[in-house]
From TrEMBL, chain A:
Gene name in the database record: genX
Lineage: Bacteria, Pseudomonadati, Pseudomonadota, Gammaproteobacteria, Oceanospirillales
Transmembrane segments: none
Entry protein name: EF-P lysine aminoacylase GenX
InterPro entries, sorted: Aa-tRNA-synt_II, aa-tRNA-synth_II, aa-tRNA-synth_II/BPL/LPL, EpmA, Lys-tRNA-synth_II_C
PROSITE patterns, per the entry: AA_TRNA_LIGASE_II
Organism: Vreelandella nanhaiensis
UniProtKB/TrEMBL annotation, chain B:
GO molecular function, one term: translation elongation factor activity
Gene that specifies this protein: efp
GO process terms (BP): peptide biosynthetic process
Protein localization: Cytoplasm
Lineage, opening ranks: Bacteria, Pseudomonadati, Pseudomonadota, Gammaproteobacteria, Oceanospirillales
The family this protein is said to belong to: Belongs to the elongation factor P family.
Species, as recorded: Vreelandella songnenensis
Residue span(s) of domain Translation elongation factor P/YeiP central: 69-124
Name of the molecule in the record: Elongation factor P
Length: 326, 188
């Protein structure tokens, strides 16, 4: 008899999941952060070259339209901030095509929150406090690393100054690829491979690791600043626990022109790679033009957090129905 | 053959890598917070049996390998090649080289079904059944009454394999052997 109708998670796990989600809401209620719900469907998608947005056709007031399933609630939430919402959080269903695995599911729950007036450090403190409140096995410490320092420690190279040739060779070696496989790849691809295959698995072991000062090219929707060594870096942090990337936070970009330029760069890179271009979200840009308060925001993978809190091996162990048996 | 992209890599899928047919053992999606996604893939090289890892950029693809497993009975060897016959009633025969036969040479017995892996219709490996019954052709005389003591001795079987057997086993007896560990299981 077929058994694929059964849930991916045990019912007892779903009870624990509900309890953890209630704790998340209580955490933000205590801090006077407003819970919001924004649409899953949007008129614009994510231009991020490494994300594949799903889309659907809808019959709207303007006739048949293509609408995009959001890869995160970021754009809608920023429009709320620009409209004067104050601090907000959301447990948002988000969608990223093709992402299936032990730590990925095409449809997942993102916890995203924004703190007008916060510095990146203040937001890091709040994020680690939330993780500490939810993951009983985590007892500290919180350790900060610079992206550059991690490459020195684990790979004895510098992400900014080591030659591209050397990075390509090293990345191919670490990926057990035949020499020359990465001969045409960009610096970013080599750094991504080394970061995700070599460094990340070693982070968050008996500690909560905070990584900062990413190369400016990896800023996405974060501001850029010059670090102590004079390198341009992203005002961005990532959080790791037990080798798993949990959260990604930004000191938010509020400049509409700069944001438009980054979206256009993404689409130019998409053309170069033969990927479809994505409609730029003009309403987000209009909101930034109107004026979004300075502040910081972070996105945290709630399913992963629950997975870690409950000591489960795979993401699907905490999902009622993972995509492969949805 | 069709091409398969990284998100179609599943355990058991047969693909070509560096000119050799391989079977996918494991496939894990790895993605930094922002940036390029990769797949860390474990593959078994079907020519050598070795398992190795390889990283791919997500979205890369590999050509499928025309590989299939068929059940065939062992017939005979002419000293150069080993001959097997399909058990599906077609009487179709395949000749297997020594290299493809590998360690299975010491577990060969006529009329026993083996799993033959074919790549482009050529045999590349032979897997024996998990258990096989073989006659002892040479061993020291059995010790009477010694059925419980732990001792063992070497015995040469009709297929040429040498296994450790209990002291009470005699020449001419037929034994059940686990071909995966090469260990004696029981008298047949």
């Amino acid at each position: 008899m077929a058994t694929d109708w059964r849930p991916s998670a045990e019912i007892a796990t779903l009870r624990e999941r509900a309890r953890l989600l209630a704790s998340v809401r209580a955490f933000f209620a205590r801090r006077d952060v407003l819970e919001v719900e924004t649409p899953v469907l949007g008129q614009g998608g994510s231009t991020d070259v490494h994300l594949v947005s799903l889309s659907t056709q809808a019959r709207t007031d303007k006739g048949q339209r293509r609408l995009w399933l959001q890869t995160s609630p970021e754009f809608h939430m920023k429009r709320l901030l620009a409209a004067g919402s104050g601090p907000i959080f959301q447990l948002a269903r988000s969608f990223r095509d093709g992402e299936i695995g032990a730590r990925h599911n095409i449809e997942f729950t993102m916890l995203e929150w924004y703190r007008p007036g916060f510095s990146l450090d203040e937001l890091i403190n709040e994020t680690t406090a939330l993780v500490a409140a939810l993951v009983p096995s985590f007892t500290g410490p919180v350790v900060h690393y610079r992206y550059r320092e991690l490459f020195h420690t684990y790979l004895a190279v510098d992400p900014f100054t080591t030659s591209l040739e050397k990075l390509r060779t090293l990345a191919a070696e670490q990926g057990q690829m035949p020499a020359g496989t990465l001969a045409k790849e960009r610096r970013e691809t080599c750094l991504d491979l080394l970061m995700s295959m070599v460094i990340e698995p070693q982070l968050g072991r008996d500690e909560l690791s905070v990584v900062m000062d990413y190369p400016a090219s990896q800023a996405a929707l974060a501001r850029r600043h010059q670090d102590a060594d004079g390198e341009w870096v992203a005002s961005r942090f990532e959080l790791y626990l037990e080798g798993i990337e949990l959260a990604n936070g930004y000191h938010e970009l509020t400049d509409a022109d700069e944001q438009r330029a980054r979206f256009s760069e993404d689409n130019a890179e998409r053309r170069r790679l033969g990927l479809p271009e994505v409609d730029i979200d003009e309403r987000l840009l209009a909101a930034l033009e109107h004026g979004m308060p300075e502040g910081a925001g972070v996105a945290l993978g709630v399913d992963r957090l629950i997975q870690l809190a409950l000591g489960k091996a795979r993401l699907e162990d905490v999902l009622a129905f993972a995509t492969p048996n949805c | 053959m069709a091409n398969y992209s990284t998100n179609e890599f599943k355990g058991g899928l047969k693909v070509m890598l560096d000119g050799d047919p391989c079977s996918i053992v494991e496939n894990e999606l790895v993605k930094p917070g922002k940036g390029q996604a990769f797949n860390r893939v474990k593959l078994r090289n079907l020519m050598t049996g070795r398992v190795g890892e390889r990283t791919f950029k997500s979205g890369d693809s590999l050509e499928g390998a025309d590989v299939m497993d068929l059940e065939m009975e062992y017939l005979y060897t002419d000293g150069d090649m080993w001959h097997f016959m399909k058990t599906d009633g077609s009487f179709e025969q395949y000749a297997v080289e020594k290299k493809a036969l590998g360690d299975t040479e010491k577990w060969l017995k006529e009329q026993v079904p083996y799993t033959i892996t074919l790549w482009n219709d050529k045999a590349i490996s032979v897997t024996p059944p998990n258990f096989i019954e073989l006659e002892v052709v040479e061993t020291d005389p059995g010790l009477k009454g010694d059925t419980a003591q732990g001792g063992s001795k070497p015995a040469t079987l009709s297929s040429g394999a040498v296994v450790r057997v209990p002291l009470f086993i005699n020449q001419g007896e037929v034994l059940k052997i686990d071909t995966r560990s090469g260990e004696y299981v029981s008298r047949a």
